[in-house]
Design a protein that fits this description.
53% helix, 6-stranded mixed sheet, 6-stranded antiparallel sheet, alpha+beta
Length: 771
């Protein structure tokens, strides 16, 4: 009976009940749609990350001679290539028997002279000249690789068929009996999982606030009504049932509507490149159990919020009219924020050591940040974030007092009085955006500084320099050879072919002698110093790397770190100086260990890269030619993705905060229908009441965003000074940050303005009749 009465009151309780039901449903629908979008992106990432890692397949190395045919094995040679900054996954394969394992995404292995490509790779091969890319892959295309072998529609993947003899001659070829089925081991998995967790926290908290605010709409009026029920004999349990039905009805309608909204948004959500690449649309979707959890959990949470809002009625039916102004928030709420910011400010001074991962001219690694810096900084961050949430109500109260002192009309006085009366409630509806804006500002301050540090090394002149090593990986096939690199005759031939391209500057790096090489691997994983010879005349075209002493024709330098590291900002330049040891100038008989190429024409660079493929294979090197910029691209791309995701979270959180404010404003209007109507009867213009509502919404929203942004910017400066290399300084966040923050605030205010027509409608003087 109580269930039916509660449902009747919710659906047939007049305009006020219907308005409350619609607002609850709208707020819940927005929250559910956003939450499902986050879950969908997470499942897209997780399903892609958990796919079969065929790249992880391993087996015994083939020592230059093809095994006897037969059985269920195949020869396998996997490596990566690059084209204009994009990574290409290449697998050369040759079956040794009729039962050789078949690759995922294929029905049969490619025969010699054939290859299969991903859809994106097929489009790329068809759009660029063959001497820039296609000539790297012998044979003809015979099919397209299925989705099972790909991480997303943008993957560049190619499976090349060859003869056993051809693969046996390649470095790092293995003989495999089975293709790996374990999930892909992504070095950034923990980072992305942490990022999704942070996004979920940053979104769920304001979404719960939004749902709770919506569920508690017109709490004062409802308390009075339910108190009347208690006075005429209703039990506390009966009142709870009626209140729960009211909240559950709106939340259930909102949950269903939110799922419908998400279905409309799903194609757009699937096009968001969370981890730097697109996911297949079919993978970007929540699971059935999560849909069910939303349909059940959200109404339950709404019912709990409704019951909590009526705790005074459950204690006593007279509790609803015994209203007192809650105590003002104390200044102690600022203590965690002050301590946290102080720790962040002092961390670079007290704990900082020069941070660099670069090798010095002697090959030594300089000291990095102090081990105590990380926990000290993390504790400071935690205290700062806690302090932002705790101090919000105190800051809102101060803002209300400032508005009261500076107000020149009735609207400022009325809004300031209401904010000061209950600053905790005023701040609660926007508290969720504090952490999002703080984290967003911190990331937006750190990421550009890190990325600009990479580009600034050598004045940015190293970004497009192509580097190629002709040395095998330590412990790889050929690693025990005495003389490594390209033989002198082959190196001379290669130099002539590269220098024939117009505008190409080449810097070859040679072994120290004809008998010795930079990598002298006397045993597996044990290699000698990475020292080689550079001709000073060739070095002149690469001024960022340094210059020789006057009169020197060649120098003996440490260039191993220059060739192997992916972060240009960690390089200590110049690595050739006036005190670098000299070497004999005749290098004609020396093996070539590596080469740097610089050209302003991207097409020429790709032609040279295509030319180098056969020479790296001949030398036994498994390292694909790539530019310094391509080496740092994955790192920079990851930072950029984190920044974009964080800014997206900030934007959504701002909008959700605006929705919370709109719902809170709507509820406040319903509660204050009588005093606002009386004010209009007394001659107060509607515009004055509009300004009251806007001030009440704008003050906590603007204060929360401003304080969080300032704290985030200061934190970014501290993090950079403590942890970032090469003395990088914090810069103003980029245009995308200001567009995101400004756009989000404007959208939040726009959402708040949607509640103003309700004010005019419920305060019509002709309808001034109250219960």
């Amino acid at each position: 009976m109580m269930f039916r009465l509660g449902l009747q009151l919710a659906l047939q309780g007049g305009k006020e009940a219907l308005t409350r039901l619609l607002l609850i449903a709208s707020a819940v629908a927005i929250g559910v749609a956003v939450l499902l979008s986050v879950l969908a992106d997470f499942h897209g990432f997780q399903s892609t990350n958990d796919r079969q890692c065929w790249q992880c397949t391993s087996g015994p190395a083939v020592a230059g001679q093809a095994p006897a045919p037969g059985g269920d094995t195949e020869l396998w040679n996997y490596r990566q290539d690059y084209y204009q900054g994009r990574t290409i996954e290449r697998l050369d394969v040759a079956a040794l028997g009729p039962n050789a394992p078949v690759l995922p995404g294929l029905k049969t292995l490619p025969a010699a002279g054939e290859y299969y490509v991903s859809p994106a790779m097929a489009a790329l091969l068809g759009s660029v000249p063959s001497d820039q890319l296609g000539d790297r892959f012998p044979g003809r295309q015979v099919g397209v690789i299925g989705d099972d072998a790909l991480g997303g529609p943008d993957d560049l993947t190619i499976f090349v068929g060859g003869t056993p003899e051809q693969l046996a001659a390649l470095p790092a070829t293995m003989q495999v009996k089975a293709i790996s089925t374990k999930p892909e081991l992504n070095s950034a998995t923990n980072l992305y999982q942490f990022g999704f967790g942070m996004a979920a926290i940053a979104l769920v908290f304001p979404l719960l606030t939004l749902i709770g605010t919506a569920t508690r709409l017109a709490a004062a009026r409802r308390e009075e009504r339910f108190a009347a029920f208690r006075l005429v004999g209703a039990t506390s349990r009966q009142v709870s049932v009626i209140a729960s039905v009211d909240a559950v009805a709106g939340a259930l309608v909102g949950s269903v509507a939110g799922i419908g909204i998400f279905q409309l948004l799903q194609p757009a959500v699937a096009k968001v490149p969370i981890s730097g690449a697109l996911y297949f649309s079919s993978r970007v979707a929540p699971t059935l159990s999560e849909y069910i959890a939303v349909l059940v959990g959200v109404p339950v949470a709404s019912a709990c919020a409704a019951l909590w809002s009526l705790q005074r009625v459950r204690i006593s039916p007279l509790g609803a009219v015994r209203r007192t102004t809650p105590p003002a928030p104390g200044v102690w709420r600022l203590l965690p924020l002050v301590v946290g910011l102080a720790m962040l400010i002092t961390a670079p001074i007290v704990l900082h050591k020069p941070a660099s991962n670069a090798l010095s001219a002697t090959g030594e690694l300089p000291p990095g940040p102090s081990n105590a810096a990380l926990p000290f900084t993390f504790i400071g961050l935690a205290l700062t974030m806690l302090g932002l949430v705790l101090s919000g109500s105190w800051l809102t109260m101060q803002g209300a007092r400032f508005v009261a002192k500076s107000a020149r009309g009735a609207s400022g006085v009325l809004s300031a009085r209401r904010l000061a009366d209950n600053p905790k409630a005023a701040f609660r509806s926007v508290s969720g955006l504090v952490l999002a804006v703080f984290v967003g500002t911190t990331i937006a301050g750190v990421v550009p500084a890190v990325n600009s540090g990479m580009k600034a090394v050598g004045g940015g002149s190293l970004t497009s320099v192509l580097r190629t090593s002709f040395m095998p990986e330590p412990g790889g096939p050929g690693a025990k050879s005495v003389v490594l690199g390209l033989p002198s005759a082959t190196g001379t031939e290669l130099l002539a072919r590269m220098r024939a391209y117009p505008g190409a500057d080449v810097l070859p790096m040679y072994a120290t002698s004809a008998r010795d090489a930079a990598y002298m691997c006397v045993a597996e994983h044990q290699c000698g110093p990475t020292q080689g010879t550079i001709v000073c005349k060739d070095l002149e075209r690469f001024s960022a790397l340094g210059e020789c002493a006057s009169g020197a024709t060649a120098v003996r330098a440490q260039f191993g770190f220059l060739l192997s590291h992916d972060d240009p900002s960690s390089l200590t330049l110049p690595f050739v100086a006036h005190d670098t040891p000299t070497a004999p100038g005749d290098v004609s008989a020396l093996p070539m260990e590596a080469v740097l190429i610089k050209t302003a024409d991207a097409a020429t660079l790709e032609k040279i890269r295509t030319l180098l493929v056969s020479y790296t294979a001949q030398s036994g090197s498994t390292t694909a030619p790539k530019t310094f910029g391509e080496g740092a691209h994955r790192r920079s791309e990851t930072y950029g993705e984190i920044q974009q995701i964080t800014l997206a979270v900030v934007a959504v959180t701002l909008i959700v905060a605006g929705c919370s404010l709109a719902v809170a404003v709507g509820g406040g209007l319903l509660e204050r229908r009588r005093p606002f109507t009386l004010l209009r009867l007394a001659g107060t213009p509607p515009q004055t009441l509009y300004r009251v509502v806007v001030f009440e919404s704008a003050v906590p929203l603007a204060l929360a965003a401003l304080v969080a942004a300032v704290a985030g910017y200061g934190t970014a400066a501290s993090v950079i000074k403590t942890l970032v290399t090469n003395g990088a300084g914090v810069a103003l966040p980029g245009r995308s940050y200001f567009l995101t923050l400004g756009g989000g605030l404007l959208a939040s205010f726009a959402v708040v303005l949607t509640a103003l027509p309700l004010l005019k409608r419920i305060t019509q003087p002709d309808d001034a009749r109250f219960e």
